[in-house]
Design a protein that fits this description.
It is a single chain. The chain is an alpha+beta fold and 215 residues long. It has one domain. It contains 2 helices and 4 strands; from the N terminus they run ααββββ. A 4-stranded antiparallel β-sheet has the order 1-2-3-4. The longest helix is centred in the N-terminal third of the chain and has 43 residues, at 2-44. It is globular and about 65 Å long. The termini are far apart.
């Protein structure tokens, strides 16, 4: 029995790490597919990033609606996703601990730098600025596509912390991000550069869409 207990103590952590690695790999695959959707959208809309003209949509909420035709939907719709349609798993990270509370049925958020001018987003309070017009940015304005976060896990987190539901502004945790050049990376919050509010928040990147979120 002692031998079995020792083997279990060795194997269980390894199996847990393997499962988590699989979840992260699936999440990054999802993000790369979403990145392809963004790329197709840019081709059809004069190389301009998607937006909805509603400044109250926190964290780019409903960003997926303009991308739906490029992610496998037939036609446009504005309701919540259901498990019976599309491939909802593409919009959900299997490691998402906040499954029941996802924004718009997706684990991922769209960086606000791509639909607001840098000069009009000095702090996180811009999310609630009712008179703030949308200002979708062009692909040409992205000066460092391999270093600017386009989208990423929102409340998901892949580190053992007392509160796993951490937003982008939190200095703890780690998650997968999609960059504007289409690649996806898993990064701890400490690797994200400080934004205009002094926190690791890709929404408020210094220099806006033309800035960098990583070195």
């Amino acid at each position: 029995m002692a031998v079995v207990a020792i083997l279990m103590a060795i194997l269980l952590p390894a199996l847990s790490r393997a499962r988590e690695s699989g979840r992260k790999a699936t999440c990054q695959s999802n993000l790369r597919q979403i990145g392809l959707g963004f790329g197709l959208y840019l081709q059809d809309y004069d190389e301009t990033y998607p937006h909805l003209n509603d400044p109250s949509l926190f964290m780019g909420r409903k960003w997926r609606w303009p991308l739906q035709p490029y992610l496998g939907f037939s036609g446009q719709r504005t309701g919540a996703l259901t498990s019976r349609e599309f491939r909802p798993q593409v919009l959900v990270c299997p490691g998402d601990p906040a499954a029941a509370e996802r924004y718009d049925g997706t684990s991922y958020a769209y960086a606000a730098a791509f639909y607001l001018r840098p000069s009009t987003a000095p702090t996180d309070k811009f999310f609630w600025a009712a008179n703030e017009p949308m200002a979708p940015q062009s692909e040409a304005a992205v000066l460092h596509p391999a270093q600017k976060v386009l989208a990423g896990e929102w409340a998901s987190n892949h580190q053992s912390l007392p509160s796993p539901d951490l937003g982008w502004w939190d200095e703890r945790g780690a998650r997968s991000f999609l960059f504007a050049d289409g690649h996806a990376r898993y990064l701890p919050a400490g690797r994200i550069l400080r934004a205009r509010d002094g926190l690791p928040d890709p929404n408020l990147t210094v220099g806006g869409v033309g800035g960098r979120d990583v070195e």
